Here is the input.
Amino acid sequence: MTLGLMSGTSADGLDIAYCEVNAQKRSLKNLASATISYPVPLQETVLKIARDASVNLSELIGLSYYLGHFYADAIEQFCREHDLPTDKIDLIGSHGQTIAHLSMPIQFLDRKVCGTLQIGEAEVIAKRLGAVTISDFRSGDIAVGGSGAPLAPIYHQAIFAREGETNVAVNIGGIANITVLKSNGECVASDTGPGNSLLDTVVRQRTGKHFDADGALASSGAIDAKLLDELLRAEIFQRRLPVSHDRGEVLRILEYQTVASQLANLDTQSALATLSEMTALSIKHATEHLLDGARATSVIVCGGGAHNRFLMSRLRHHFEGVKVEGADAFSSNVDFVEAEAFAYLANLTLNSQTGNLAQVTGASRTAILGKISMP
Here is the structure.
């Protein structure tokens, strides 16, 4: 039995999925799942360190080991609440907490490099739980020339692909990403831009709440065409697909002078309605590009954005004539698809199977991903 662990860029909690995985048959069954919320001081610390241009190394190391213990505590709590003996856990796949993701090359000394940093010390998890723990999946893809993201498409392919159908998996977390599963077996994927991150930022700034529950505020606002046009001019939307995005560059959209000034003149409801429309449209535009003339059969939505009724209504508007539904229609848990994905990836690694799709990440070849920590 495998535990998949996932914490997204919003750093609001740890998703845990307890799964039965058959790597040979490429199948997964989610037996139990839960989210253990980050305490507010932990969330604020993660976001501060991820945002700061200069990082105190002692803080970074301390946070990584603290998260390792937090994850181990969370697993023990999860097992108690679900009456699961910890010795029933054979394997743990931990994504870790992203601090930075450099998908675009930077010049460092005499070489251009890409890189990524996910923390949450896996050695702590492995030693405390007594289970083999696999972590740092993205670095393996980057090492063979890929962007390190997205990695979930190999799992999307296993659970959402249907013969004769062209299905689109849409994950709306802090950053939104899509996987297009074509009827001919081809799989292409990309980040699309902001998911919930800008919405959550504006909600926190203006209301003190963590998010717009069910999209209630946005649904009572009006979409501002002028601001929407300005938002869609952002540099990240001009890049050639497929791409992967870092939380920092997504949040910088709100710092553009023209965006900031127009946003300041809107009421909260209309600001959220317009940002939601930007997310929906960027997903639609990226999907059309990757479909390359094909027509989607279904759009399958997972992640926190699947609970935002206003955002879902805008997706249904833009994908008129296409079935837009939650991942639970495909026997997956809409909130835990990414945690399931890392349980799945961990099993691929343990069975010496490759975990990246080179045509998706831009890697020169497929590769076995992750670093193994023994109990």
Observations:
- The mean pLDDT is 94.
- The longest helix spans residues 57-81.
